[in-house]
Amino acid sequence: MIPVADPTLEKELRRQQSTLRSLGSGVIAFGLWAALKPLLIMLLAPDEDVGASLATLTVPELLLALLIVAVFMMIVMSFRLWLGLSARAEGLGKRKGSLYMIAAYIAFAVQTVLFLLALLYLPNHDFTEESILDMFASLVVEGTSMCITGELAFAARKVKRLKKRLGEV
Amino acid sequence: MQKDFHYHATYCAARIAGWSHGDSMEICYSAQLVDLCSRTFLARVKGPGSAATTQLQLELMEARTDLPGLQDITRIWASFHFLPYDLGAEVRKASRHYRNKYRLICKPNGALVKETVELARGRGTQAAGIAMHILADTWAHSGFAGTPSLVINNTGPHFYELLSDPERERPVRFRHSPGAPDDLEQGIYSNSVYQPSENTIMNLGHGRAGHLPDYSFARYRYLPAWGEYEEILKDNPREYYLAFCQMVYAMQILRGGEEEFKLSTYATEAAAPWESEIRAILNRRQLDACADWKALGEKIAGCELEDFDLQKYEEAYRSAAPEDKDHTFLGRFFLAAMAQKSMVTNRIFRSGSLLAGFSVDFGEKGFRGIGDYRKLLAFIREERDK
Known about the structure:
The complex is a heterodimer.
Chain A: H1 7-44, H2 48-55, H3 59-91, H4 99-121, H5 129-167
Helix pairs in contact in A: 1-3, 1-5, 3-4, 4-5
Chain B: H1 3-16, H2 21-33, H3 39-45, H4 57-62, H5 67-80, H6 96-102, H7 111-120, H8 124-140, H9 150-153, E1 159-163, E2 168-171, E3 173-175, E4 188-190, E5 219-222, E6 232-235, H10 236-254, H11 268-271, H12 275-283, H13 290-301, H14 314-319, H15 329-350, H16 362-365, H17 373-385
Parallel strand pairs in B: 3-4
Antiparallel strand pairs in B: 1-2, 1-5, 5-6
């Protein structure tokens, strides 16, 4: 293909790059939230059943459990940080591979499945007044996170296609 | 634009247009005074506060950004430094509020430029000078609006300076250091701090682009917030020359021609003998071109030119009797400024926007007017009766 110097395409590329920058920041923010949420739940609203189970553990076992949770949180946060920073870098015009885009698609698929499962589980949930609000808030946040990840994947794909059209020899 | 263009270049244009040395000095003095006639200056000379044509940085720091405060800011900046191009512009898929701000974007050769020049006809050198300042600024400040607005005036990291010798491009680096001069070698310029609030003072005019619009040598491309990701290419050397030629044309009209001022008309033939020297000044990379323009002015005039002195006419105004103040140099300047501000505010109001506040024709309605504008009404009546 011959390189295309098309102002319309360039304008669209700038628009999608701007979108990628915003979405990258969003993914990082939601990654921080995903890491903080379990910690906040443990500290502020511990589940009675989980608490009862933890009470049966010895101190070393408890520390190991906390370590596993911490490592898991770090992995989730690091993944989202890498995803968000890669999207921002691409949005700022730097060259980036396709790995982060593929990872975004996979993350979007996983989040969609989990979200749909959560929706399917709703009828079985034991609703109290408090838990309705918690559930609703949780769904909204998780749904938003899912949408942001999906939008990021789509925007990354659009950027790569536009760059290809503008720069291919 | 800066003093080099408003003062010295305006003098050169006035002489080329056929004005005498004395009148040209008054015109260029008035053109430069528009950038200095703040409420602080007016308080010092005990002039009417409504005649303010600018706001100093300290005044802006203290300016309120509630509705009346924003209207006051818009009245000043849209009237004298960012004359709106098209108050009837339509915008796709936009709220009325956004549309009203979009309509304040300044560009050259708008209908209000013609009204500004015609308003100055027959009103002396002070009015001519104010009109020349406004006309010149429509070229330099093109693409920005005289109202604090993030969604109109913001710029982003996509900002590149086009350099020659050799031809190349380099990203502009902005820093927030008002005290430090811009570094032309490294391409580091000061601009206003990014603040996400819509109506903050930081988003007034071309603050987010720093002084680049005011440098005659600057060529750059950037993405304005209103542009829907469309890139704007600003070629200041070319546009400043057009501004100069249009000023010559406008001043030929104001000197006594019967002909009506026409937009997109330039006195290129009159300026032709000086074109190469003018273009050389415009293209020279320097923070201040006063010395070059002054030298050209002295060559055109054949005599030495005095430097701008803000206090030159102050004493005459202060010591004049109240009934004589309006006939002093500053008095006439203040009246011309109020007439200009009144006209622009009225046009903005009639377009359906309250961004510059209400505009009521007190003269028609039979009221005596409010405060300072009483003297403007009296002046207009006096003119009508002559």
